[in-house]
């Protein structure tokens, strides 16, 4: 009997190939999008969970009384090790590291690489496996190095490279060979070797190598290192609160002691909660979109199944006359529906394989393979197929099987007619969901356009930047300034600047300043930048008063600072010109600086936050630098860059010219927003397709039931446009109701989303009007195409339908 059910089900699906295909594609699109989203969410939720003893591991975070005084994700260099030594009964292990970039070379290969300098506890504490080498001794020698498989292939073309040598350049310009002592096996994403997407380390050096690179891994006044702890079983972060406060009180300098409160964050949840929970928000948003897409697909599937079922009333009547029992008819409908869902699920899996690379590109994440999910997810997919199939088939099964044989044979719809209002309500839900997603995608696009096309306070056009080899000495800075001057003479270069920062939000940290002669307790926090006197010219930052240092650097510039307009106001000067020549100082310092210039406010970081006070010191004074920035002349950009690269190779032999446009640095500030925008537009396309399929299902049912009515109307003189309008009126009401529901909801949702940005667009009528006009136009076209075929039929054929 069961085999017979499947045979009849297959014949029915094959007989109605067009509708079966439409139904399968609509549901499979929703399932595929949901599976892809589930894979993304699963991957994000499991970051750090693969680490050894992950449940007992924590990252030390810093809460500063005065915001901007230090990095939240960093801690005091000496704290992790001291906690392990002083409280061995609480702390099982520790690890801390410093991240740098430097020139790395092997033969004629020269690249700039991200390097992590850390403790030898790295492998034992986190369970990282070496493909080659001994994890116990790999980081014991000061000039040893562990590299990733990717880096080994990049420089040597092989992974078995233990014993080979890489040349690494220090921040004094010295070069030294580092012997490769281990090659890391492929690592899953984690917050130890790659604390965020902008910090992907491929070389790991022992803490003993810090001295060569000019870095320090110790000290209570060094608060720029990342620190981790593993607690012993039975202990929680609360048990370590008092010990951490006590050590800082006893050993840290006054400014740190008075302003810093360390706290522990579980490593398992750190990735989700870091940076204001941006990953968690992304997961929630895209999961919500996927839920509604899937719900729309299921509603559409149910609608079309119910719509097509009425065409089989005569079949049901004949089956009853021939002796079929009601339960057999119910089973027949349910089996057909479940088979259809199973087919849609198989198609969805094929779509998953095809769409996975594109979805990975959109979200900037490697989406796991189809067969990498845990076993219980496949059980869930199977149960979902059964549930959806039963949901779609139960209504027509119960209704059609309950009709009298004579009514079925006559084709009387009876009770089925009563479900039209309910199905239209479901289509209203579909329209509303699609409209909300499309409105949201348009507003997101407008906000992202503001990030790139709005007034940033500087001009990013034609600006490229590249990291430079470092020699952080007076001699090294002078050498780089000479090279900068020579590069600026290139006929394709408008200006060039040497600096520690580019406007990507990553600066040298914050500190306190106050007006000379006022109470130091009234000090404000400023973000410190280090640049030469060409920075404002290169980035076209307007001056409100004074000048950006002096045209040529002089020793007197060491005592000068340039501040932005926000800093001037925060320090109490009503007008920028009032600040020129005034002295500012930092608590504990006896060397005040003279305000030499006040710039207009510019966005150094994300527009999600308000512009902060900025204090700019001359790079010749700090001796710290990382970047050359070049303002290229308009014209053939590729020719200009080639010319610049050739001159760079002459002036800086052995240093890679790895340039980037400043637009790329700005884009990295809004990675999540850009990913969400792309995902929203993809979801919008899927949602609109599903909505149109829902309309197709309802219009098909309506035309089928009213074919005879159409014939009568034509006999009485009705025109084809008049018949089309008859159906348009019915369905445009659905669109209007959906618009009335979706517009207020979309406004509230997007207004709340925009609240997360200090600088944002105003919500205007365009997203709402564009969405409703688009959906209405598509609906009119679809209904017209469906209706016109029946309206053009001969009235005689229409009147014979019953």
Q: What is the topological layout?
A:
Elements: H1 2-15, H2 17-45, E1 57-64, H3 79-86, E2 91-106, E3 109-118, H4 122-126, E4 130-133, E5 144-148, H5 149-156, E6 165-169, E7 175-184, E8 203-206, H6 210-213, E9 226-231, H7 238-251, H8 254-259, E10 260-266, H9 267-309, H10 313-321, H11 326-363, H12 375-402, H13 405-410, H14 420-453, E11 463-467, H15 474-488, E12 493-499, E13 510-515, E14 524-531, H16 535-538, E15 543-546, E16 560-564, H17 565-570, H18 576-579, E17 583-585, E18 593-599, E19 614-618, H19 619-622, E20 627-632, H20 637-651, E21 659-661, H21 662-669, H22 671-705, H23 707-715, H24 720-754, H25 766-791, H26 795-799
Parallel strand pairs: 3-8, 5-7, 14-19, 16-18
Antiparallel strand pairs: 1-9, 1-10, 2-3, 2-6, 2-9, 4-7, 5-8, 6-7, 11-20, 11-21, 12-20, 13-14, 13-17, 15-18, 16-19, 17-18
Provide a descriptive summary of the structure in words.
There is one protein chain. The protein has 802 residues and is of the alpha+beta class. It is 51% helix and 17% strand. The strands form 3 sheets. A 6-stranded mixed barrel has the order 2-3-8-5-7-6. A hairpin with a 2-residue loop joins strand 2 and strand 3. The longest helix has 43 residues, at 267-309. The chain is globular. The chain starts with a helix and ends with a helix.
